[in-house]
Amino acid sequence: MLEDTAPAIHRVDAKDGVATALRDLNAGETVAGPFGPLTLRDAVPKGHKVAIRDIAAGAEVIKFGWPIGKALSAIAPGQHVHVHNVATLLEGVEDYVYRPLPGDPLPAAGTRSFQGYRRANGRVGTRNEIWILCTVGCVGATSRRLAELANARFAGRVDGIHAFPHPFGCSQLGDDLDHTRELLAALVQHPNAGGVLVVGLGCENNQLKALLEAAPDIAPDRLRSFTTQMVSDEYETGLAMIEELVARAEQDRREAVPLSELVIGLKCGGSDGFSGVTANPLVGRVADAVAAAGGTPVLTEIPEIFGAERILMARARDEAVFDKIRDVVDDFKRYFIAHDQPIYDNPSPGNKAGGITTLDEKSLGAVQKAGRSTVVDVLRYGERVREHGLTLLEAPGNDAVSSTALTAAGATMILFTTGRGTPMGFPAPTVKIASNTGLAERKPNWIDFDAGPMLAGESAEDATERLLDLVVAVASGAETRSERNGEREIALWKQGVTV
Length: 499
Known about the structure:
It comes from Sphingomonas hengshuiensis. The chain has 499 residues and is of the alpha/beta class.
């Protein structure tokens, strides 16, 4: 006899040998399974996996219709499936062959539009803010204090005045210094900034002149800069420059623009066993809708596609894009190997506590944020989007580093899925999407959208419409939780030696 009439487990794909527990399951209880009543041999925490068929020792464990690892021992139906009996299939650098698959039809583009700020260079912002950036960490606190003073003095005249300090810009050499400069230059040119003040020190490696030369795509009346060693009062100088930028930016007005002008970053952090079931595929449907309308979804976190990279490679627009995907994946694997680190040393402790067992599983869930669109381009760290359509961006999995890279690439909004929760926010409006209702109810001051109702029967179509409505509202100026909480950070990818 079934002990609970409500669904207790969820199978993603008909080929799967495991299902996800929708609540805490007790050893000995019987629940409805895809092949009839299933009696639990083990207790299975919510979000974790339970075997629904026999899995032989050494056999592949299937979830999402793909292998997520191999069984370390025989696993019987009703047993808990996790790190104690499953190991990754990932090893080192692999051989890839271009085998394109016919793309699935995308949803109808629709007629949605949003109220954005069209810039002189043709890009469209979702905010009209003044950004204060610094060449070097030595003036990071100065930049933050300038933002505090400016927000008090010029309140209400623009969407906000924000400083984005960082600890780098000096004691860096070669490519490491170049990457810092390129990333900051990309932020200088971001369309969400109606004006940018760049604050330098004067003696740093990341010289102000070189940084500004790397940012040609910003109108002169939108940019101000100075070096603090060359002025008597950096606050007086900075506030005078910010006042000029505010006077220019407050003339800007939102206007109706099509969804084709939207660039959305796709990010997950603090994932759990439901992330690949609810929030990530939901974001994938929104990404498809944006791409179908001519917009640009951007996927990053290269180490968190290891094990699922072939899905993206098969959707490359052509062999040239396939080659770029292969190269960025291989380069990242070699980056791990060069530092004597295993490429599969992921997921995090929080991921595992939430039910994710291997990097293979985490990656297969994560790539669902990219939907089914064709991959049209691959960007290296610090580069900006140059085509409409799904784009892959080089950056690590770290939330702050990858979200900063997404913003620098041109994302004017970030869709951030999470099963565990995080308060962090980034320069672009960051929409937090909970994979489960428990998180949304527990942290309402963090979460903007609850994907949990999909586990209770909400259709994918209805959930997609709900999220698209929120995307349009945020793009048009609605405040996210992280914006309301003042959570606005950047982090740069430090890759080289420190002098």
